[in-house]
Specification:
It is built from 4 helices and no strands. By secondary structure, the chain is mainly alpha-helical. It folds into 2 domains: 48 residues; 33 residues, no CATH class. Helix content is 63%, strand content 0%.
């Protein structure tokens, strides 16, 4: 076993012992408060605010309010297929 590997193993074991000691010494209220994770809630709210609504291009056919089809050359699926028939 290399020196680096044994040093990492010793540090991980010491860290685990510290965490276990902290959990054993904590009260039930403290443990329940940790379960709520306020930092996670803040990031979820921030990411929800950061989302923007995508404005999809609309169909080129006059009066049509549908979204344009990706393969429809600017038309919705219905009007693209109708233009192919005529």
């Amino acid at each position: 076993m290399s020196n680096l590997q044994s040093a990492i193993e010793k540090a991980a074991n010491a860290f685990a012992r510290e965490i276990i000691a902290a959990v054993k010494g904590a009260t039930l209220q403290e443990l329940l408060a940790m379960r709520e994770a306020p930092a996670a809630k803040k990031t979820a709210k921030a990411s929800a605010k950061g989302k923007r609504k995508i404005a999809w291009p609309k169909c080129k056919h006059h009066g049509c309010k549908r979204n344009a089809w990706a393969r429809g050359n600017g038309f919705c699926g219905k009007h693209f297929k109708a233009s192919k028939k005529s």
